[in-house]
Amino acid sequence: MKVELAHYDGEYIVHILGKPSEDFKETLDQVFKVYQEFLDSENLQVDDEVRVRLYLSDLANQYGELCEFIAENKFEDRNIITIGQAPTSLSKVSFEAYLIRNTANTDLSVKGRVSDNVFKFSNGEYETLFIRNKSNPNLERDEQAKDLLNCLSRDVDFNQGDVQKDLHRTWIYIRDIDMNYQVLADERKKYFDTINMTPETHYVASTGIEALNEKANCLYYMDSVVVKGLVQGQVKYLSSPKNICPTYAYCSDRSYGKVGQNVTFERGTQISYGDRNHYYISGTASIDRDGNILYLRDVLRQAQRALDNVAALLDDGEATLEDALQFIVYLRDISDHEKVLSFLRSKITKDIPIVMVKGNVCNASWLVEIECYAVRHSVDRDFSSYVN
Fold first, then answer.
1. Which of 73, 124, 332, 340 has its CA 20 to 30 A from that of 179?
2. 314, 321 contact by CB (below 8 A)
3. Is the sign of the CA dihedral 252, 253, 256, 258 positive or negative?
4. Residue 196: what are its φ and ψ, rounded to 5°?
5. In this predicted structure, what is the pLDDT of residue 109?
6. Averaged pLDDT score across all residues of the chain
7. CA-CA-CA-CA torsion sign (264, 268, 274, 276)
8. 191 near 149, Cβ under 8 Å?
9. Within its chain, how far is the Cα of 65 from the centroid?
């Protein structure tokens, strides 16, 4: 099995890729065994774990076995998130974990499950909520999109948060994105309008991508990162007008090579702490400053342009690709796996996790989309540290 690691001053991201074509249960067993060996080698504990994401090749058929595995190992209280996106390597499981170790040996954090779909991580002055919402599969398509956003509001309100102020990152997973994306985009814009999230205020870093749920008639599900305790000046919304247009500037023509209307998310978000900056770069594709999709039918040139756009967004926050801790790459055609991975490894000098999965983007002409999480050293005595 392949293990990839990146870390920065107490933050760790580990990626473990199962071997191709092995039995699903055996792969799960092996992945978690290798993970435990990694923890032991790095002197980390399961208590340092904040989140695990499992990208699965056939979620509908694997979900039952996964639930049995979690119950057998008493993992119910851990923040294990399942995503119905097949690893492009042909493995049945791609495993990613985010951990934080207290470098000062003080009482760093309190972690725990608030409810079935909300996990809380309290870290000094800050409280982070990881929220998983699913639309009601018994509703019609438009109502499912509304339900997804209403559920998010309910969960944030219940945990004394404010969506407009505290929501900073979302991943929206859509069944049959070519058919169902625009409905979600329309409803999200309406929802944001009601809470004063507009081009004049701000949106949120986000990825909207195709993925399956374990229930065939559930069209939408969403993972959200809500950070409470941030003060004025800690959040910056990243842009690069010379490279890539704001999302709300997309046209209304969704024909080949066009994107669509009512697209409302930030290209990237920077959160500054006393000891570091975090960068959430949204799903980014091959697009120019006027909103045109570049290099139709050429996956490698699209990958280059997408990576250039990611770098430009990081530059707006005074960071570079060298500060990245992880990339997630979504491919429309899994046969492009080897050449895209080889290309990215030639451009990204650090041996950090690159998670590659099957994920159609919101327009068929995008062959690849790249998102990034980065951390850069910073000292700002006006803000509390992220890791004490």
1. 340
2. yes
3. negative
4. 60, 40
5. 63
6. 93
7. positive
8. yes
9. 25
Query: How do residues 69-89 score in pLDDT, each as one tens digit?
Result: 999 999 999 999 999 999 999
CB atoms within 10 A of CB 291: 16
What tokens does 244 get? 């890539």
Could you give the 3-state DSSP secondary structure of residue 12?
strand
**When comparing pLDDT for 349 and 336, which is higher?**
336
As given in the structure block, the two tokens for residue 304 are: 């280059």
Lookup: tokens for 202:
């701000």
132 lies in a domain?
yes
Q: How far apart are CA 281 and CA 46, in angstroms?
A: 27
Q: Is 6 helix (H, G, I), strand (E, B) or coil?
A: strand
Q: Residues 151, 160: contact at Cβ < 8 Å?
A: no
The number of residues making up the chain comes to 388
> Residue 386: inside a domain, yes or no?
no
CATH of the domain at 56: 3.30.1330.40
| Residues 375-386 pLDDT 10s | 999 988 889 999
- Reported pTM: 0.95
Residue with tokens 């119910």: 76
Q: How many percent of the chain have pLDDT more than 90? A: 86
Q: Is residue 383 part of a domain?
A: no
Residues of the domain holding 259: 2-377
Helix, strand, coil in percent for the chain, rounding step 5: 30, 35, 35
- How far apart, in Å, are the Cα atoms of 207 and each of 211, 231, 372, 380? 12, 25, 11, 29
Neighbours of 43 (CB within 10 A): 8
The domain tally of the chain equals 1
Helix axes 299-316 and 337-347, enclosed angle (nearest 10): 40
CA 261 – CA 248 distance, rounded (Å): 7
Tell which residue, 296, 301, 271, 267, has the closest CA to residue 284: 267
At 214, which amino acid appears? E
Q: Assign 34 to helix, strand or coil.
A: helix
User: Please, which pLDDT band fits residue 95 given cuts at 50, 70 and 90?
Assistant: very high
Contacts of 116 (CB under 8 A, 6+ apart): none
| Structure tokens given for 267 | 């290209």
